[in-house]
Design a protein that fits this description.
This protein is an alpha/beta fold and 569 residues long. The protein is built from 20 helices and 24 strands. The protein is globular, with a radius of gyration of 25 Å. The N terminus is likely disordered.
Length: 569
């Protein structure tokens, strides 16, 4: 009887691994003969999986899954390649990725002279009065800084000289500053007498003259003039432009193995546009969207915009996004103590603390998640204080997030885990920013509070990953590499003790990002019943050398069992 019982238990276990699916049911897609890392601790690795509809129906050995292959089943022989849950971009700007492909790409420039030359060439092709826009410059990445700079950034005069009749607006790589030429400032009605807007700064030289550098909200003054210039465009033209952005963004995401995308801040009108795309079936990447608006608009409109799993799980709107400070590179991060390289500044409080608190109150009343951009240690402390005042009631699972969480006071690090606040971080930022972190913060603050990935993980916090695209390349493999190596271009390692393990880094890009969007029951691991969102890679990023990670390619991107990207042979 004991032998019979053991044999019966073994049969039950085998059936349980296949999760009870009938062996007579045929799959529409089968992946077989591979290394499939599920990110599920109960069954971490399998050889094959089967898909029915848009969900995973079974996982197991290649032999077990062969029972699901029918006459209509699409079979992919992985030939030993690695399959993982589809990458989830944890913080990016979806339409911004598409827009960045339609304007001047300044990410490749290595000097101010490069930028001036690009603008000069664009001005030669432009009609008089036509705006020239670009994004991606970063003064800290230039080979040299020209003479006559103010606060480390050139003045507008060389741009104004090569483009006297065309307004020019060039956004900083971080998105938290911009540079304008004389024509653009004139179009915006900006003069040396124009006061700084709340949460922003019109940078001036020692004589009080405008340099053209616009920090934080000051950039909105020129951006408003740019938008006014577009008033002559028809509704059809505007719609087509936005559709082109969405198409380019989706194409870029799928090419890089991304199946879901956390869009970190859009207006209500953009949500309407995304819903329209979802209704048409033209939203191939699943979006988790954060609404960005002021408390007055949120009060009036937020409740009617809540959507969970809309369009066959392609659109979810259940969070709000605000920014309390700027970026470190542009001296906009809000610090407890002054910048080491700019002792007269502690950064900027870009939105009043009480407005942030009001946003949290509105969001909580409507069961929306709160996601606040905070980079500086003071910004993070203030947001944690606000969050803590809402936590502790024990009647809900808030999962409120701090977007970036880059520079923390050591006393605040344990608060993430104890409160359950999610540090929504970007691995690639650590190595991108590292060369100037020391200059901005000094050695002591950098060592104790900059990009504390592993330390935050050990507090029990759910650390997430992403790229903040188009601030950085959307490539998850580059951010994964940065997360596990923290190796800079010169070969040095930026506080190696804060590296994540390969397995932790993969979890941060899959299951943790799903958790941060309340979607861990349908995404983030390859478990029967979850959505069949899968990425197949050319190399095993869990075992290959550090250097080989960056040469790894995406072979397939599968969303809901549909192959939406396949690398050419």
């Amino acid at each position: 009887m004991k032998l019979i019982s053991l044999k019966y238990c073994a049969l039950l276990l085998s059936a349980f691994i296949l999760f009870g699916c009938s062996r007579q049911e045929s799959a529409r897609l089968v992946l077989t003969n591979g290394k499939i890392v599920t990110v599920d601790p109960s069954l971490p690795e399998v050889e094959a999986l089967a898909v029915s509809g848009d969900t995973i129906m079974a996982v197991g050995t290649s032999e077990e899954i062969s029972a699901y292959i029918g006459g209509e089943t699409r079979v992919i022989d992985l030939e030993g390649k690695l399959a993982i849950p589809g990458f989830i971009e944890g913080h990016g700007h979806f339409l911004g990725i598409g827009e960045a492909k339609m304007i001047l790409d300044l990410t490749t420039t290595s000097s101010w002279e490069d930028i001036v030359a690009m603008v000069e060439a664009a001005a030669l092709d432009a009609e008089p009065g036509e705006w020239i826009t670009g994004r991606g410059w970063h003064q800290e990445k230039w080979d040299s800084i020209p003479a006559g700079t103010v606060e480390g950034v050139p003045t507008h005069h060389s741009l104004s000289e090569v483009s006297p009749e065309n307004p020019v607006l060039l956004r900083h790589a971080s998105g938290h500053a911009a540079f304008a030429n004389r024509a653009a400032m004139d179009a915006a009605g900006i003069s040396p007498e124009t006061p700084n807007p709340a949460g922003g700064e019109l940078v001036r030289d020692v004589r009080g003259e405008l340099t053209g550098l616009l920090r934080e909200t000051a950039a909105y003054l020129v951006a408003a003039a740019l938008e006014k210039s577009r008033e002559g465009m028809s509704a059809t033209e505007l719609d087509q432009e936005r559709r082109t952005m969405a198409h380019l963004a989706a194409e870029e995401a799928l090419t890089h193995g991304i199946t879901s995308f956390h869009d970190a801040g859009v207006g209500f009108g953009t949500v309407d546009f995304f819903r329209e795309l979802a209704d048409e079936g033209n939203l191939p990447v699943r979006l988790y969207v954060m609404i960005r608006s002021n408390s007055t608009n949120l009060t009036d409109r937020l409740a009617s915009y809540r959507m969970i799993g809309y369009g066959d799980n392609h659109l979810t709107v259940r969070s709000v996004k605000r920014s309390i400070d700027g970026a470190l590179g542009s001296h906009g991060a809000w610090l407890l103590e002054p910048y080491t390289d700019m002792p007269g500044s502690r950064g900027l409080e870009t939105v009043a603390v009480e407005e942030i608190r009001a946003t949290a109150e509105i969001a909580k009343a409507h069961d929306f998640q709160v996601n606040i951009h905070a980079i500086g240690d003071r910004a993070n402390r203030v947001v944690l204080d606000i969050y803590e005042s809402f936590y502790g009631t024990g009647d809900e699972d808030l999962r409120w997030r701090i977007e970036h969480s880059q520079h923390l006071h050591p006393d605040d690090i344990p608060r993430f885990g104890s409160l359950g606040v999610i540090p929504a971080m970007q691995g690639v930022h650590a190595i991108s920013d590292a060369p100037w972190v020391y200059r901005r913060l000094g050695e002591e603050r950098a060592a104790s509070g900059a990009y504390r990935w592993q330390t935050l993980w050990q507090t029990g916090a759910v650390v997430t990953n992403g790229t903040d695209a188009p601030v950085e390349s959307i490539d998850p493999l580059a951010s994964y590499h940065a997360t596990v190596t923290r190796r800079l271009a010169d070969g040095s390692v930026f506080y190696p003790e804060e590296r994540l393990s390969r397995e932790q880094a993969l979890q941060s890009y899959t299951l943790n990002n799903a958790y941060a969007a309340f979607e861990e029951d349908i995404k983030g691991s390859l478990v029967p019943g979850k959505l069949a969102d899968i990425t197949v890679l050319s190399q095993d990023i869990l075992t290959i050398s550090d250097e080989e990670i960056l040469s790894t390619e995406v072979l397939y991107t599968i969303v809901g069992g549909n192959i939406l990207y396949q690398r050419d042979p």
